[in-house]
Write a sequence for this structure.
């Protein structure tokens, strides 16, 4: 496919990797923020093309992974009501709650459905006027325009049996939380390209300046990632700390204005708890007062459902780039994609699942780049 | 989850009954209806990046070529170095 295949070209990838090897003189630790980037890196073995000293740590950019346990319990509690059709993106269904996942709830009779778009959930609400259709709105800034549009349309068309369980999170506050941790080892960021496609990248300038950290807006294909790494390393080697845009074919400096306007009309910034990391101020979105009647949490009175995390899972450390998945004692034994202890083992974009599926251990040195398709 | 797939706009449906601007987008042979409200500048023949049924940006074809030009320059630079005495 155009705009995908050429960025997976073996020769171009090798050439870019060579450019990185030539310009690297010291060890550096970089974090890719987005789970989609982690998936490509682990699947294609990009790490093995890099010089010894360059370490990639994987960031918190997997919405499924950071959705708090109590949100999943709330979704399960709502799904168990007989009048409800609960709709969600597929990945969310297998994430374990404290007693059940949404799949377990479905197996015991709840009407849980996988949709491709929030507009599909809205369509279900139109065609099932006697049922309550709830969309579990999980995601980062990339997904917020779609969810905002679904709520805006529901209001415009007056669809009273539609509502949304909102668990939206924002990337820049999480990057700041990582940078301000005393254990932080991240020296440069590859920012999430599709988040920036919506929001632009001006909000990263103060972060880059305050923490003296290069931030390179980066795409998702192997060549994109290597070019992002090359740009970040060039900054580190020359002592610069700026915001640069590798992914200019998709990302404009100030982002997508119509999308930002619709998000701002429907949602407002709020504090959110991140699974494994904890609460981060101003790190999420909730429905504005004018659209609060579409809020499933209050419609079904589940705001008071709370839950405690499993103590064995080190997902929080993995999501902050402090541990690699294989450093967890449960990795691949007590915790697998079939019996996950934590969300990063569930989502295909979770670092633990990616390491598990592509057999990445510390001692592995074989690149599988030649078979790369990065299709996901 | 923030996956966005490039596809080419084949038709734009101007019917206003749904309220949303929609178009048919071709993803390497598979065609899907996509909401174009967030890309008012998009025209038939443009490539858009689509996330959960919404086009979120028009791909800049000129920028898309930039990395390959940079790689060609690197190549030529290497050849120059190799041919230098």
């Amino acid at each position: 496919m155009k705009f995908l295949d050429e960025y997976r070209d073996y020769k171009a990838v090798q050439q870019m990797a060579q450019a990185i090897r030539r310009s690297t003189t010291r060890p550096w630790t970089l974090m890719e923020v987005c789970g989609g980037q982690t998936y490509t890196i682990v699947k294609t073995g990009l790490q093995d093309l890099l010089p010894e000293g360059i370490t990639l740590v994987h960031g918190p950019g997997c919405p499924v992974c950071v959705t708090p346990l109590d949100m999943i319990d709330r979704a399960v509690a709502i799904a168990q009501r007989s009048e409800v059709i609960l709709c969600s993106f597929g990945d969310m269904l297998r994430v374990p709650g404290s007693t059940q996942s949404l799949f377990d709830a479905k197996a015991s009779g709840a009407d849980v459905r996988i949709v491709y778009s929030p507009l599909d959930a809205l369509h279900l609400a139109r065609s099932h006027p006697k049922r309550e259709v709830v969309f579990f709105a999980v995601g980062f800034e990339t997904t917020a325009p779609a969810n905002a549009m679904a709520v805006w349309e529901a209001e415009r068309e007056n669809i009273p049996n539609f509502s949304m369980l909102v668990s939206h999170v924002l990337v820049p506050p999480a990057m700041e939380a990582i940078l301000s941790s005393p254990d932080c080892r991240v020296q440069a960021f590859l920012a999430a390209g599709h988040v920036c496609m919506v929001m632009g990248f001006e909000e990263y300038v103060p972060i880059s300046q305050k923490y003296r950290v290069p931030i390179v807006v980066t795409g998702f294909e192997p060549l994109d990632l290597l070019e992002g790494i090359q740009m970040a390393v060039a900054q580190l080697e020359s002592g610069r700390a700026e915001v640069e845009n590798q992914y200019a074919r998709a990302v404009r400096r100030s982002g997508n204005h119509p999308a930002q306007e619709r998000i701002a009309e429907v949602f407002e910034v709020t504090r959110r708890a991140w699974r494994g990391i904890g609460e981060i101020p101003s790190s999420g979105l909730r429905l504005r007062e004018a659209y609060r009647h579409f809020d499933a949490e209050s419609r079904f009175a589940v705001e008071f459902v709370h839950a405690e995390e499993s103590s064995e899972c080190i997902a929080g450390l993995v999501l902050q780039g402090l541990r690699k998945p294989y450093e967890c004692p449960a990795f691949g034994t007590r915790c697998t994609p079939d019996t996950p202890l934590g969300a990063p083992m569930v989502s295909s974009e979770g670092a633990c699942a990616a390491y598990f599926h592509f057999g990445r251990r510390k001692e592995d040195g074989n690149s599988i780049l030649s078979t790369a398709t990065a299709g996901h | 989850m923030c996956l966005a797939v490039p596809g080419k706009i084949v038709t734009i449906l101007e019917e206003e009954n749904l309220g949303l601007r929609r178009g048919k987008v071709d993803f390497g042979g598979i065609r899907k209806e996509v909401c174009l409200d967030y890309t008012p500048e998009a025209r038939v023949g443009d490539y858009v990046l689509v996330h959960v049924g919404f086009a979120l940006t028009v791909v800049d074809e000129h920028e898309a070529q930039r990395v390959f030009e940079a790689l060609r320059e690197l190549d030529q630079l290497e050849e120059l170095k190799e041919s230098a005495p």
The CA atoms of residues 84 and 132 of chain A lie 5 Å apart.
